[in-house]
Amino acid sequence: MKRQTPDLILSTLSNLGVDYLFHLPGISLAGLYESLGSNKKIKSVLFKHEQAACFAAAGYSLLTGRPGVCMVMCGPGITNLVSALTECYYQSIPVLVITVDNPRKYFGKEEFHELDSFSMLKPVTKKIFSPKTVSAIQKELAEALSCTVEGRPGPVYFNVSVDLIPKVSTVKDVRLRVKIPCPPLSRVKKALQIIRQSRNPVIFAGSGIKRSKAEKELREFVRLTGIPIFTSIGGRGIVPEGTPPVMGMFPYNFNTDFLNISDLIIVLGTRTNTFNLRLGKLKLPERQLRVDINEKKPEPGKFEIYIKADARKFLEAANHEIRTDKNFSKTADNTIYVSYLNAFNQFKTAEQAAISKRPSSLTTKKFLLQLSEFLKDREFTLFTDSTSIIFPHLLPAAEKPHDFFSIGSFGCLGFSFPAAIGASFTHKKKKIISLSGDGSFLFNCQELSTAATYRLKNLIQIVLNNDGYSSLYLTAAMKNSRKKEYYLWNRVHYGCLAESFGIKYITLDSPSKIKKALSKAFSGTGPFLINVVTNDKEYLKKEDLP
Question: Can you give the residue range of the structural domain that contains 155?
Answer without folding.
Answer: 2-170
